[in-house]
Amino acid sequence: MESILTKTEIMKAELPRMLAEHKAIVTALRKLLQAATAEGHASFASFAQKLILHAQMRRRKSFYPASILVGEYFWRSSSEKT
């Protein structure tokens, strides 16, 4: 149970930084996509598009907060029992 609580706290602390990093990554990938398209590099443009989709997946915006919620639930459940 202790490791769940520790991981929950780590995720809570790191989530804002992680989301900011993903936003910066998407911004850079959009620049890559524009440059690749402008220069006719279809494979690089396709690569950038795929990475943008991956970076924008809902996983980071829903699964991580859900994990934090579950961890807090376990914490509250364990503290009520003591």
Average pLDDT reading: 85
The count of strands amounts to 0
Question: C-alpha Rg, in Å?
Answer: 19 Å
Uncertain segments are none
SSE topology string: HHH
What form results from the Cα inertia axes? Answer: rod-shaped
Number of helices: 3
First-residue to last-residue Cα separation: 13 Å
**Largest sheet entry:** none
Note down, in words, how this protein is organized.
The longest helix is centred in the N-terminal third of the chain and has 37 residues. This protein has one domain. α1 packs antiparallel against α2 and α1 runs antiparallel to α3. It is rod-shaped and about 65 Å long. The chain starts with a helix and ends with a helix. It is built from three helices and no strands.
In short:
The protein has 82 residues and is an all-alpha fold. It is built from three helices and no strands. It has one domain.
Ordered list of secondary-structure elements with their pairings:
Blueprint: H1 2-38, H2 42-55, H3 59-81
Helix pairs in contact: 1-2, 1-3
List keywords for this structure.
82 residues, mainly alpha, 0% strand
